[in-house]
Amino acid sequence: MSKNRLRPKLIHIYLHEDEDKFLRNYADQNYLTVAEVFRGWLHEVMKREGYEITEPLLPEKGGKK
């Protein structure tokens, strides 16, 4: 796996048909991907539980600035 990859972990979950439909509709209505909705929910739960959330920084591109 590339060392420049921001999120090297992948999870696979099984959803009930109604959960899948709700999640996809919610994401579409809010112009988000399913992954963005899930990660947003996860971050909210982590904050509530007292974890400090920090977003990864984008790698700097080579060359002159």
Question: What would your notes on this structure say?
Answer:
The two termini are about 30 Å apart. The chain has about 60 residues and is mostly helical. The protein contains two helices and no strands.
What would you say about this model in short?
This protein is 43% helix and 0% strand.
Class derived from helix and strand content: mainly alpha
Helical residue percent?
40-55%
| Proportion in β-strands | under 5%
Gyration radius, in Å: 16 Å
List keywords for this structure.
mainly alpha
What order do the helices and strands come in, and which of them pair?
Blueprint: H1 17-29, H2 34-48
